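Figure 2 data, in text form.
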Amino acid sequence: MIWGLYFAIILLIEKLFLNKYLEKIPSFFRWLYAFILICIGWIIFRVENIDSIFIVLHNIFTFKSSDIIAFIADHYSLLNYLPYMVLAAIGSAPFVNNLYQKLSAKNNYLSYLYDIWLIIILLLSIAFLIQSTYNPFIYFRF
């Protein structure tokens, strides 16, 4: 319920106040805005209770530079998967699709290469999921 309420409030605020401002900013910043709000929504969807939402968000958005070793130890998995997350963020950006559209108009074989590339990414994603030790189905508790 909190997850649905979160997105309902965002939609209301956007429709009533922010829409005219969001249309004026460059598309990359609109994408970044949506990306951050959706990631926060995933946190709300995944955590067990309301207190955990604030704890997770506090841990994400605060950083104490006094103890860099503890940060690396606490965030080892984040740092380990950071290259994959950066590639995923770049791959989901609109400019990748725009570049593909421009290049495929010139070269028909590029569409086949793109399809092969997507299949490779899908297989790598499945391999990463299988590799992890225990990965419960996210909707199991529903």
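Caption note: The chain has seven helices and no strands.
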